[in-house]
Each structure stands twice: as structure tokens, then as C-alpha cells.
Amino acid sequence: MRGGCPRQRTGGGATRGDADGLEPRKSKSAQHQRRKQCPRLRKSMMDAERRLWTALRKEMPETPGTHFRRQMAIGPYVVDFVCLRHRLIVEVDGKFHDVPDQRLRDAERDAYLRSENFRVLRFSNEKVMREMPSVLRNLAVALATPTPSPSPQEGGEL
Q: Would you place residue 45 in the very low, low, confident or very high pLDDT band (cuts 50, 70, 90)?
């Protein structure tokens, strides 16, 4: 999961430096910059992200109503994959996300995305690389589960 663009690679290519730890930016110009940099992120996906993207394109088209986008800006964040129709975000997390400070930032980010009526599924790089059938089953279950409507207090319908 990214705090936003740009993604920075370091030494081994498996970590993203400080990009995961960026605080959400509130200004419209910062959000615009993130959106502008998303095409570069699409071209520089990590191995696990690339593998999941390939599986989503090959496996999920069989599921009606699923269309995933990759590296899409949502508010102040850039998410790995999103199915807008089902309000489902899929994040592929490397070991960097095991760091306590990053867990806190991820929790804040997830709270923001949930407040926008998205569901967030997270999979480790390792799980994506070694257990793709399990990942795809989890996604299929999530896609079959209706997204809750906003509460009536916020103008949604039950």
C-alpha cells in the first residue's frame, strides 16, 4: 500500500523507501501531482503487483461486473488496485508494512478509504507470489459480498 506517489525504489528493488510513509496531502495541487505520477507507477509495479494484475485480467473478467484499475488516486492516496463498481480496494503489501509506524499510517489510510465507502483487502507480497488461488478466492468472496450503503444519516438508503 502506498501513502501516495511517487514511489521510490532503493537498493534491492523490493522496498519503496519513504513513499509508503507519506502523509496524506490536503491541497488540491498535491492531489493533482499524485494523479499525474500514477502512470509512472503503473509502469514500475513490483513483481507481486504485476503478478496480481495479470491474474485479475485473466481470472476476474469471468466474474460479471468486475473491472479493476491499477495505481488509481483516491482522495490523497494512490491505491494498488480498485474495482469501483464494488467499491473494493486491493493492496499488495511488502515487508515495509510490518513496521509499526507504517502500520499506523496504513490504519489511518484504511480509515479514510472506509469513510469513502470502500472496502480494503490487503495481501502480502509473499501470499500473492505463493498462494494466488487463495488470493483470487478471497477476492471472489469479497466481490460477491454487497458493499454496504452509506448510513441514512449521511443521505444513503438502506
A: confident
Q: What's the rounded Cα separation, in Å, for the pair 96 and 17?
A: 9
Please list, in sequence order, all residues whose beta carbon lies within 8 angstroms of the beta carbon of residue 56, skipping any fewer than 6 positions away: 68, 81, 139
3-class secondary structure per residue, 90-126: EEEECHHHHCHHHHHHHHHHHHHHHHCCCEEEEEEHH
Q: Which three cell numbers stand for residue 139?
A: 477476492
pTM exceeds 0.70, yes or no: no
Does residue 1 sit within a domain? no
Domain that holds residue 113: 47-145
Query: Which residues, at least 6 apart from 146, have a Cβ–Cβ distance to it below 8 Å?
Result: none
Write the CB contacts of 129 (distance below 8 Å, at least 6 apart in sequence): 47, 48, 51
pLDDT at 3: 44
Of 73, 141, 149, the residue nearest 117 (C-alpha): 149
Distance, in Å, from the CA atom of 45 to the CA atom of 59, rounded to the nearest integer, reads: 19
- 151 is a domain residue: no
Q: Look at the chain and report how many structural domains it folds into.
A: 1
The x, y and z cell numbers of residue 17, run together, are 523507501
Query: Is residue 4 situated within a structural domain?
Result: no
What CATH number does residue 112 fall under? 3.40.960.10
